[in-house]
Amino acid sequence: MLAIGLALPVMMWVAQGRLEDYQRSFGWRERVRATGFAYAEPANAIPKSNRFWYRKGGEYFAVDATTGTKARVFDPARLAEALTRRSGIAVKSTDLPFTSIEFTGSGNTIEFVSTLHGESRWRVNLDTYETSNIGMRNGDSRVLRSLPGPRVPELDRPVAAPDGKTEVLIRNWNIWQRTPGKEDARPLSFDGTEGNYYTLSLTAWSPDSKKLAVYRVRPGQRRKIQYVESSPADQVQPRYITTEYAKPGDALDIPQPVLFDVASGRMMQVESTLFPNPYSLTRLEWRKDSRAFTFEYNQRGHQVYRVIEVDGTTAKARAIVDEQSPTFFCYYSKRFVSHVDDGRELVWMSERDGWNHLYLYDGATGAVKNQITRGAWVVRSVSKVDEAKRQIWFSASGMHAGQDPYYRHWFRINFDGTGLTPVTRVAGANHDVAFSEDMQYFVDTYSTPATPPVMELRKASDLSLVATLEKGDVTPIVSKLGWRAPETFAAKGRDGQTDVWGLIFRPSNFDPTRKYPVLEYIYAGPHDSFVPKTFAATHSMQTMAELGFIVVQVDGMGTSNRSKAFHDVCWKNIGDAGFPDRIPWHRAVAAKLGPVYDLSRLGIYGHSAGGQNSLGALLFHPEFYKAAASSAGCHDNRMDKISWNEQWMGWPVGPEYTASSNVEHAAKLRGKLLLAVGELDTNVDPASTMQVVNALIQAGKMFDLLVLPGKNHGGWGEYYDRKRADFFVRELMGVAPPDWNVGS
Q1: Per the domain annotation, does 644 fall within a domain?
Q2: Do residues 526 and 575 both lie within one domain?
């Protein structure tokens, strides 16, 4: 918590931005916690059981679905004591250093990732509270492409066949075969070189152990970003760091699948006509009967995506699914495939009719058998494809007229599109559902930004209620803190027809007779939608509101989870950021609330993509936005990571990148600007911010700059929060912030 108060002189200001407002703002989270108020977070299924776990405040609970009972997973005090003893770092029972747990073994052991001793994985025996640091697990990558760095094939570990009688390894860039435990090996390939090498990454043995599918890779460009850690904790001199980081337009690795008949040693290269220009190829997966293997092809530019099957005898490839779009295929969040009956059918997700829906494919012919879901609403996720019952359990939003179109509900439907059945019954709320592994039970946690969660345990067979596990009550924070629920608000966007949705936060001491400057928190990344749809009493926007602002967030066109047309606004147009929708939304709020909503003092702030967006507000819409705080911004999409930017801005790199660049348009700056960047940002190249700085200087523009030594993309702490608060208090309220250098 920000230490403010006793050592500082009392400052008597008549407007917002007073010392007492800072104290209320930066102490908001602790004040909420002090009331004893806590609410349940969404539940998680415990594998291989009919049990669930969830967190409420600082405590963790396990639920036995067969009895409908719940109990604490562990004693927070005992666990804190055990972690303190084992790590040598003081751990508080009210502030345990993790937020998620995994049950392992017979269920009496948990594991979690903590920041104790850096990021590390810990294991706790719940019977004895014996605690150990077990080191991080390496997650298996599903995609083969140029990130994060070059392969070293000689270091690939041997991969054994399913029958355990043979294994393959890499020697001198080629595939070799041997008997496990033996040194002698025979080569299966001879054409591997350092510039076109074989790799065991994403390789696959056929289930009958007779065939092997591997990738040979022609390496692409290895771009490196150089960092200077100016102030390392363990030495006086700076430290120099290099990381690999592919950017839009860079040459990528070109993987080529190769099939081996191991017994004969025959090598068959798969003809690449169907996958000539890969951005990525996925893991090679064999059919259970060893007749063929499959992989997925994402074409450079993200406008073609194919599910490809390769015959296990002839190596002939065919496309089962051939998804093509004139704009983009959103592989980020809308790629789903389920191979049914060993690939004889496929369930596939597509936006081809203008909305995100499910389709049933004939695996033998590649023809669509039928559209499973349809309508002016979107499928959000699939929880279960039940082959035996030929049913799909999925979440969707936008199906209920008159409701917030982003609220998620769960449904069940038959493969042929009949029998659509609501699984979650409470309307007007956002639902988060966890199913047991056998689909016998589920826990439904539902809330809105204004109403705390209700958690219900239900049977999946008939949807009957087993038990109400939790029911939130905001009385403590309303009566003790004057907490005000945020308001959901919708208004017409740029076309005068489409509703855009946002959220409005007011300070707890809101006075309807006063005029409040307005802050917009922005993140317009096309990969998702971002306005909160669930309850959070300590949201960061509420913290900013407590300073004396009205704070809002809006999802404009170009963001996800609406129609394809709504989303396509971002295509080669990230600089748009939905501002033509945000501006009429603001005006509609002002028309409703009146003078209290002072649009003459409108500021905006954002981080990462939101950093690009917030500066863009001053460059492209200075007549509307007066001040911006931009942190860790990807200010030129040519400077940022390849994956995110080529998805939305296209490939090859074209003039659209220049049109959306804050660097290219820096000379247009009007209004007040705070730029901030972490010197060790490995997510967004810090040079992106510094190039904006250079362009602003060249244009003679005045601005504030904060460079944070040792900081990466996030986790900047209270110093930046205070700096940003001071900036807006000064520029939008016309009030001098407290002198923080007094009374240290």
Answers
A1: yes
A2: yes
Shared-domain flag, residues 62 and 28: no
- Residue 340 CA to residue 329 CA, distance in Å, equals 23
Distance CA 463, CA 442 (A): 9
Q: Rounded to whole angstroms, how far apart are CA atoms 411 and 305?
A: 27
Pairing of strands 516-521, 550-555: parallel
Give dist(CA 631, CA 733) in Å, integer.
21
Say if 441 falls within a structural domain: no
Smallest CA-to-CA distance from 723 within 744, 706, 735 is with: 706
Residues 26 and 111 in one domain: no
- Strand 487-492, strand 167-171: pairing: unpaired
Q: What's residue 23's pLDDT?
A: 94
Give the angle subtended at the CA of 319 by the CAs of 318 and 322, to the nearest 5°. Answer: 160
According to the model, what pLDDT value does residue 57 have? 92
- Can you list the pairs that 71-76 forms with residues at least 24 positions away whose Cβ atoms lie under 8 Å? 73/101, 73/110, 73/126, 74/110, 74/124, 74/126, 74/129
Q: Using an 8 Å Cβ cutoff, are 381 and 388 in contact? A: no
Going by C-alpha positions, the residue among 275, 326, 317 that lies closest to residue 294 is 317
Question: For residue 136, what pLDDT band results from cuts at 50, 70 and 90?
Answer: confident
Which tokens is 351 given?
A: 């936006």
DSSP letter for each residue of 641-686? -HHHHHHHH-SS--HHHHHT-TTTTGGG--SEEEEEEETT-SSS-T
Give per-residue pLDDT as tens, 5-52: 333 333 333 457 889 999 999 999 999 999 999 999 999 999 999 999
Instruction: Return the CATH number at 55.
Output: 2.30.60
Among 133, 149, 175, the domain boundary falls at 133
What is 184-225 written as a DSSP string? --EES-S--BTTBEEEEEEEEE-TTSSEEEEEEEE-----EE
Count up the domains in the chain and report the number: 2
Q: Which two tokens stand for residue 418?
A: 């009949």
**Residue 141 confidence (pLDDT):** 40
Question: Looking at the domain assignment, is residue 692 inside a domain?
Answer: yes
Query: 613 by DSSP, 3-state: which?
Result: helix
Distance of alpha carbon 512 from its chain centroid, rounded? 37
Decide if 422 is inside a domain: no
Q: Pick the last residue of a domain from 99, 133, 167.
A: 133
Which residue range(s) make up the domain with 695?
19-34+476-733
Q: Model confidence at 150, in pLDDT bands (50, 70, 90)?
A: very low
Provide the terminal-to-terminal Cα distance of the chain, rounded to the nearest Å: 16
